[in-house]
Design brief:
The chain starts with a strand and ends in a 14-residue tail after the last helix. The protein is of the alpha/beta class. About 35% of the residues lie in helices and about 15% in strands. The strands form 2 sheets. It has an 8-stranded parallel beta barrel with strand order 3-4-5-6-7-8-9-10, surrounded by 5 helices. The chain has a two-stranded antiparallel sheet with strand order 1-2. It has a single domain, classed as TIM Barrel, CATH 3.20.20.100. Pfam families: Aldo_ket_red. Its EC number is 1.1.1.-. It comes from Rosistilla carotiformis.
Length: about 325
């Protein structure tokens, strides 16, 4: 496992992070025993960044992670997320921060995160979404900074809204966030235009999520696959989206085969591609079994993607918008 610094002031974190969404049970049935085995195996392999959220099973993911962390002697970096109070997701341009991230709400929510994680200090607290409407009066971030001063939080971050990832650029330049969590993958390469260079310029840590496009870029789905209604992928790949995605993954596989990358699976290529982006500290991958932990952790030590292939892969950037919110 290779390590990178998380921004200019953060710790060394593993290039491959552990994504804890599936541990909450929203990606199909998940036994806690399997989650615990996955966490232990990932840590054994050098993974030290674990990412979760309040919304992952209403705290279930956090609690499972806390139980494992208590059993380990390694220094682990735990990141979690606080969602906004009830209202539209992502926040509407007309939402007031006072209604979604008030000081009292944030303090109460952070206390719940501390209880679930069984800790006195959260290494990285991320607001789970944001709106550009609050950039000129970012009071929620000032509340989090106060919590940092009180010793309850180590670093402050924002998990970008898919609809407007660039909304964090001003915040990075204003020094209001220590880290951003962004979507960057073979299909969604827009952050390379400005967001990632600004993060590097300002020394802001970058954690990449959705490197496998909810599993699609791992090459494991066919157009005939179906997902249960309580599975996130049921909505994400609704209508003709599954077929359209499969066709594009086939084209990516053709590029990979031309270069004879025998040591790479399609999932390996997708994860490694995200790791090559400017300023990226870690790529969190969804892990729900010990086998997946082994597969994903191994990508860190695989050889670099050849430059000629890397440039060729840029053609797969897909301007589809936030397709699961509409067409």
């Amino acid at each position: 496992m290779q390590y990178r610094q998380l921004g200019h002031a953060g710790p060394q974190v593993s290039e491959i992070g552990f994504g804890g969404w599936a541990l909450g049970g929203q990606w199909g049935r998940q036994d806690d025993a399997d989650s615990i085995a996955a966490l232990h195996r990932a840590i054994d392999l050098g993974v030290n960044l674990i990412d979760t959220a309040a919304g992952y099973g209403e705290g279930r993911s956090e609690k499972v992670i806390a139980e494992v962390v208590k059993q380990r002697s390694e220094k682990l970096f735990i990141a979690t997320k606080t969602p906004p109070a009830e209202g539209p997701w992502p926040p509407s341009p007309y939402c007031a921060w006072q209604d979604r991230y008030s000081a009292n709400y944030l303090r109460e929510n952070v206390e719940q995160r501390l209880r679930n994680l069984q800790t006195e200090r959260i290494d990285l607290l991320q607001l789970h979404t944001w709106t550009r409407a609050w950039n000129d009066d970012p009071q929620p971030l000032l509340v989090l900074r106060k919590l940092c001063e009180e010793g309850k939080i180590g670093m402050i971050g924002i998990s970008t809204p898919e609809q407007d990832q660039n909304c964090v650029i001003q915040l990075m330049r204003d020094g209001l966030v220590d880290c951003v969590q962004v979507i960057f993958n073979l299909f969604d390469q827009e952050p390379a235009a400005q967001l990632l260079p600004v993060a590097a310029e300002t020394g802001t840590g970058v954690i990449v999520r959705v490197a496998l496009d909810e599993g699609m870029l791992a090459g494991k789905y066919t157009a005939e696959d179906r997902f249960a209604e309580d599975d996130f992928r049921h909505q994400y790949f609704a209508g003709d989206r599954l077929q359209r995605s499969v066709d594009r993954v086939t084209a990516i596989d053709s590029d990979m085969q031309r270069f004879g990358l025998r040591d790479y699976s399609q999932a390996d290529l997708a994860i490694k591609f995200s790791l090559t982006a400017t300023g990226v500290s870690s790529v969190i991958t969804g892990i729900r079994s010990a086998e997946q932990a082994e597969q994903n952790a191994a990508v860190s030590d695989k050889p670099a993607i050849p430059d000629t292939l890397l440039h060729l892969l840029r053609r797969h950037n897909w301007r589809r918008g936030v397709w699961y919110a509409g067409k």
